[in-house]
Amino acid sequence: MQALTWHGEQDVRVSEVPKPEIVNPNDAIIEITATAICGSDLHLYNGYMPSMREGDIIGHEPMGEVVEVGDEVETLEVGDRVVVPFTISCGSCWFCGSDMYSLCDNSNPNAEIARKVMGHSPAALFGYSHMLGGYAGGQAEYLRIPYADVGPVTVDSGLPDEQVLFLSDVFPTGYMAAENADIEENDTVAVWGCGAVGQFAIQSAWMLGAERVIAIDRIPERLEMAREHGDAETIDFEEDDVYDRLMEMTGDRGPDRCIDAVGTEAHGTGLVGFADQAKQEMHLQEDRPHVLRQAIKCCRKGGTLSVPGVYLGRSDNLPFGPVMNKSLTVKTGQTHVQRYLDPLLEKIEEGEIDPSFVISHQASLEDGPEMYETFNEKEDECIKTVLTP
Ligand code: NAD
Ligand code: ZN
Fold it and tell me: Start and end of every Alcohol dehydrogenase-like C-terminal domain (predicted)?
């Protein structure tokens, strides 16, 4: 079958690879009908993520049709149409039982590597390095889904792929980011980053009762989407000083809730992934502007900082002093996608939201390498790409 494979920094290729097979009795195989490229894929693309190997199949936002199930799979049948969460979770450990699926204790066969770096291992993810499980990803024609009874959500309402695909990651991620922000009535919510995650965080902030949403980015079409579709006020960080502007807009108090939907590759910061120690040291020395630092500085005293943006390793010269002295609450994490599948699917089915608004590009799997480049460079007004194998 064809798949997109990783071959080093900014080198993604279309490769012929073996079709996946059932390995464990709780596996299922799906034939992929749509699969998206995520901002998280750019961390791999740019070589920030350690423990990638040449030829790894990437991608973690897939959906498709079940073509084979293992003997112990109970909830899926051949022919079912499913969206697959990017988090792989066993469903039976203490964390899964506590609805914290992205912290599953059992799904990462390479937990020892993660433990060395983090002290504990989070859940495995599709197509996201050997440290996080080494599972083949979903930018391919077929995908093996471990713990098939726990992850995939069946969609039988006839909604097109474009409307349900983002349940795999970016819609729940934006939603959990807004939930983690502890939004209360009359709150002003500031969202750094107007990529797909930021756009869904904006939508979700309204759903959770925000009074005002302010979105920050520098890319015109993304700011425009935040304004036109997201009803947000916007700040272009290349035109305005973000702190000054936010203080002006909030009567010097600062936004009550701040969401960092940018993560490790914040524009203007240089590299901060721990894959490249030298560049990281450089970053630490130069004290460049940084979204986390900026959000901590801007957030009102006693406010909440929610961080869906992905950070790797010792990512930043994080000013913890202000976090303590301003009594900030910080919440972060990979999304517990399984927790949100049913309620968010219901919102889509009831017409409360149509997630396809973020799609800027649709292309074939063969065009994948070109689309990675376009998305990475933020060219051609690219916001979110859906690939169809
Ligand atoms: P994206 O690359 O499309 O968007 C990032 C946006 O941030 C861009 O529009 C960019 O212009 C903007 N940006 C860069 N520097 C900025 C700055 N200094 N201030 C304000 N905006 C700035 O990515 P995405 O798909 O929207 O993902 C965003 C982040 O969320 C990534 O770090 C990704 O890895 C992460 N993510 C996390 C989870 C999770 O489970 N927590 C899931 C999916 C994605
Ligand atoms: Zn993703």
Answer: 196-265
Gap from CA of 77 to ligand 1 centroid (Å): 36
Q: Which of residues 286, 307, 332 is at a domain's end?
A: 332
Verify that 362 and 303 share a domain, yes or no.
no
**How many domains does the chain divide into?**
2
Tokens describing residue 206: 């309204």
**Structural domain ending residue among the three candidates 310, 332, 354:** 332
Question: 111 CB less than 6 Å from ligand 1?
Answer: no
- CA angle, 310 then 316 then 321, to 5°: 115
Q: What are phi and psi of 215, to 5 degrees?
A: -110, 140
Same domain, 108 and 208: no
Residue 201: pLDDT above 90?
yes
Regarding whether 158 and 185 lie in a shared domain, the answer is no
Question: Which numbered ligand comes closest to the C-alpha of 224?
Answer: 1
CATH label of the domain that carries residue 90: 3.90.180.10
pLDDT band at 117 (very low <50, low <70, confident <90, very high): confident
Please tell me whether residues 264 and 345 are part of one structural domain. Answer: no
44's tokens: 């791999």
Say if residue 112 is exposed, middle or buried (CB neighbours under 10 Å; 0-12, 13-18, 19+).
Answer: exposed
Q: How far is the CA of 266 from the centre of ligand 1 (A)?
A: 8
pLDDT value of position 47: 84
Closest to 30 (Cα-Cα) out of 88, 80, 74? 80
294 alpha carbon, closest ligand = 1
CATH of the domain at 228: 3.40.50.720
* Cβ–Cβ under 8 Å, residues 223 and 234: yes
Whether the ipTM is more than 0.90: the answer is yes
Decide: 306 in ligand 1 pocket, CB within 6 A: no
Which range marks the domain in which residue 87 is found?
2-169+335-388
Say if residue 380 is in the same domain as residue 309: no
Expressed in percent and rounded to 5, the helix, strand and coil fractions of the chain are: 30, 20, 45
Give pLDDT, residue 314: 61
Whether the Cβ atoms of residue 1 and residue 140 lie closer than 8 Å to each other: yes
CA distance 202 to 310: 18
Phi, psi of 57 (to 5 degrees): -85, 125
